[in-house]
Amino acid sequence: MQQTASGGYAPGGPQLNVMYVGRICSVTNVSRTSCRECGASILLTTADKNGGRCVPCARGTREQSERTKQYFAEQDARHRASLDRLARAPRLSSVDRICEVLDGITSVEDEAQLEALQIAIESVSGVQQPARAARAMLGVLERFPWSDGYGVFWSILHSLESIPGYESALIDSIRRRAGEFNLLMVNRIINTGTTDVCGTSLLALLREVVDSQEHDADAREAAAGYLARQEGA
């Protein structure tokens, strides 16, 4: 910047770079210019080293960087739009309708289905006999045993844990198809100090998964990990 007659500074010329080292203040002139390809403001020393270009342009990464920025900007816009739709969407008024929506979830990669799933889960607390939805919620976890539904499955977990007596349905779910979230829920119950539910030992249930070839290798490994931690505690 250059000092004007009024004592202010006008654009152009070297900029003042104030550096503080301990109690000593030093002021150095830092000359800048524009990248000849993208126009970004850069140091003259950078321009000299890179033929008048900024580092990203010189390395050929500017285009990729801009594409990445655009991608995340688009994802952010989609996320905000989805949150807006969820906020304005009416909640489901009956447990039968909730179960119908939950049973109809066939993909956790489809944005519309994820939104429908989220609305259904958020509706559970507002209907009579919410326990009737437990089987359908667990069914979603069973159909996609190693997914988190882009975070929506955590809503399922918390909704289930708020329903009195959901544990018996959870045990049945484990025996049908053990996966990431229903096994996690069993472990969370054990962490509270409860090891027996409805006459079933939860530690024995985990051993059952470990020893059964009916469950996939990932389920057996996850159950073994929880069992080892609980028995070693």
In summary, what is this structure?
This protein is of the alpha+beta class. The chain has a domain at 2-59. The protein is 55% helix and 12% strand.
Task: Write up this protein.
Helix 4 runs antiparallel to helix 5 and helix 9 (180-191) runs parallel beside helix 11 (217-232). The radius of gyration is 29 Å and the shape is elongated. It is built from eleven helices and eight strands. Strand 1 and strand 2 (9-10) form a beta hairpin. It is α+β, with helices and mostly antiparallel strands. Helix content is 55%, strand content 12%.
Distance between the termini: 66 Å
Query: Which residue ranges are poorly predicted, with pLDDT under 50 across at least 5 consecutive positions?
Result: 1-14, 23-27
Rounded average pLDDT: 87
String of helices and strands: EEEEEEHHHHHHHHHEEHH
Shape, principal axes of CA atoms: elongated
Radius of gyration: 29 Å
Helix content: 40-55%
Q: What is the quaternary state of this protein?
A: single chain
Tally of DSSP β-strands: 8
Spatial sequence of strands, sheet with the most strands: 1-2
Structural class: alpha+beta
Query: How much of the polypeptide forms β-strand, as a percent range?
Result: 5-15%
Tell me the number of helical segments per DSSP (H or I, 4 or more residues long): 11
Largest sheet: 2 strands, antiparallel
Outline the fold blueprint:
Blueprint lengths: L1 E2 L5 E2 L4 E7 L2 E7 L1 E3 L6 E3 H6 L5 H5 L2 H27 L6 H9 L7 H13 L10 H10 L8 H10 L5 H10 L3 H12 L4 E2 L2 E2 H10 L5 H16 L1
Antiparallel strand pairs: 1-2, 3-4, 5-6, 7-8
Helix pairs in contact: 4-5, 4-6, 5-7, 6-8, 8-9, 9-11, 10-11
